[in-house]
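Feature request, filed as a ticket because there's no other form

It would be nice if the structure record came with a short human-readable summary line next to the tokens. Right now we just get the raw output. Example of a typical job, pasted below so the devs can see what we mean:
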Amino acid sequence: MVKKIITAKHRGFCAGVERAVEMVEKSLLKYGAPVYVRHEIVHNKFVVSNLREKGVVFVDSLEEIPKNTKQPVIFSAHGVAQRVINKAKDYNLLFYDAICPLVSKIHKEIIQLEKNEYKIIMIGHEHHPEVDGTAGQLKDISNLTLVQNIEDVEKLYFPSNQKLAYITQTTLSVFDTQSIVDALEKKFPSILAPKKSDICYATSNRQLSVQEMSKNVDAFYVIGAHNSSNSIRLVETAKRFGCKHSELVENINDFDYSNLSEFNTIGLTASASAPEEQLNLFIDQIKKVYAIEVLNFKEDENITFKIPNFLN
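Raw output as currently delivered:
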């Protein structure tokens, strides 16, 4: 029997990830190796490994970078705390910030909220780089409270005259986040919401694409990474909306393709931090074992973020 492979209409690199990776690539062309990147530029092992082979050195802190280096340092798409930028200046480092513009928008929001004497509730995952970077924009970290679920909301207390606002991490589950927002607004009716959802267009589009497909496939596979929030959310979405056999594929070379034998219709997507090249290679591997028909419904999101002119 011919297996049917259905690919998600919204998949693969988002504009913010494309911009960040391009900034690293352009830095390699302009300055040569090594180019230093603080933390993973994006959460994807394939992307990181590919850049490392080209001469990128990934570090966990600026202290790992040789003093007096003239080589550039790039901050990841997740954004960094203001103290990291200040330290880079103190060290006289040549640095470029590859923060996603949609994360940068949240940074500006939280700075303004603090100036206006709001206490800020952030919906997000503890220790995620984006959460750490966003919290690090505040002058007083006590002005921010992180909530990860409805149970956290139930534990919150603020004086009745305290001005409150909430923001969210950009890569959360659209569905889980809404239930937390509903709980916040019920408990604090005057809480200030973002003018526009903080969950980014790419995260929303990819989750909605998976939602549409999940009831019509026997199995669903997400090309992504285990430390990638947006990748994990896609697996959760597929399970939530009807496809119980949903799995994250981090390394296509380690995948056991014999596991596909029991499925006739297979859903496939790549997370916002996973290159579509990996999805195509995954399909090529399936072709070696099974006869397949690929139904490709990809739609262009028509969103791009420019890299700084000085890297062109």
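Something like this underneath would help us a lot:
Residues 6 and 106 are 35 Å apart (CA to CA).
The mean pLDDT is 95.
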